[in-house]
Amino acid sequence: MKNYTTDEWIALDHKHVWHPFTPMGYWREQKPLVIERGEGDFLIDTDGKRYIDGVSSLWCNVHGHQVKEIDDAVKTQLGKIAHTTLLGMASPPSIEVAKRLSEMCPGRLNKVFFSDAGATAVEVAFKMAVGYWFHQGMPEKCKFIGLAGAYHGDTTGTMSVGYSDLFHKPFISMVFPVSSFPAPDTCRPPHGFEKSMPKCYAEGHWPSEDKEHNEALSAYCLGKLEEMLKSHAGETAAIVVEPVMQGAAGMVCQPKGFLKGVEQLAKKYDVLLIADEVAVGFGRTGHLFAVDGEHVEPDILCLAKGISGGYLPLAATVVSDEIDRVFAGDDVMERRTLYHGHTYTGNPLACAAALATFDLFEKNDVINHARKSAEMIHERLRELLDHPNILDVRQRGTMVGIELCRSRDDAEPFDFSKRTAAEVCMSMREEGLIIRPLGDIIVLMPMPGMKHENLSRMLDVVVKAIKQWSFEK
């Protein structure tokens, strides 16, 4: 690779690269960071400046960058073979990952279908759910119920179940109809819910921590789901949810017991439950999987991002023997085969990274480490309770959303065109921290394995930047 200057790299990027989720006209007027290396919890740009990776490289890195154990595992596998197909053949790394996942996943989930990204893991789940009923003589059970505000990816099926007007409006003609039930969003309660957002700052907690309000909100949303199931369970293949926290919806926390309520309704009305843990899995909520914290056993579990430690593209859709048997059949002429697959399914290099990642969870006691990190975050961000421009701080484990507002009195947002949260985040780069916003929400996504001294530094930068910012009135 050629050794260009930073300005030359930027010029070439502006000329040739189309970035995801990026307004490219605006982008080409900016001077972006060009990240050349990583080291532990830090990213290092082409000028040698170090930044704390506060977004876990888009919510996927778990243990850090250039982790010796993962590096060595990938190098060792590279000395054997970089890629071989799983179509009609098997490979030791994918077999071992599947075995380990079956031991790690909740309940009866022990069959693993590999793919290469979060959206593909969810698309596979959709096909499995519809096929499960089809092969049992119930082809009418082919529809889905999703959670309002959900995000599951940007392929056609995932757009349909997680439709966002902002992201997907130009493609409305491509998606299939999906029903959705209201999410228990404290700051934006669904239409028909009588209680307004609680103002509880003086009592020492955030709106999303108001137990009484959120229990009522949860019950209301579950009631709406049951109304839908009473009428449509006979045509519903599955309910699809992001467990515990909806990320792209604005870091929306689900009250304790909400997910369990969804599971109970799925069982009551004989529909499958798909848990999309692409973003929330592998330690981010203080549990290996978010469903573990709610004692929920989904029928289908979708995994990606952190499965390889954030090193290489790998995803898995994990199901029970019961679902597997429906597709297996005894006769090839029954045509129960799941005709779905991707070229790099179960890639050996990615699987080697995953196995090393799993080992590090045990070696470094990452779950307990992440729980201590969550306590640090919670205590430090309480300093913002009296800030007039902080509407809410929503947290599950090490996943955090700090919602900015013009006024707490009426929860008035900032003018979208002002990019307020984005500007606040950009100011933190001068202090050596990279984070990204979602609209007016500053998102903190430290690695579950981030060293506590680096997390403390990250929180120092965040709190200082917010306190010193001159917010528009």
TrEMBL record:
EC numbers: 2.6.1.62
Signal peptide bounds: none
Keyword Transmembrane: no
EC class: transferase
GO process annotations (BP): biotin biosynthetic process
N6-(pyridoxal phosphate)lysine PTM sites in chain numbering: K305
Sequence positions that bind pyridoxal 5'-phosphate: G118, A119, D276, H342, T343
An example Gene Ontology molecular-function term: pyridoxal phosphate binding
The protein's name in its UniProt record: Adenosylmethionine-8-amino-7-oxononanoate aminotransferase
Protein species of origin: Poriferisphaera corsica
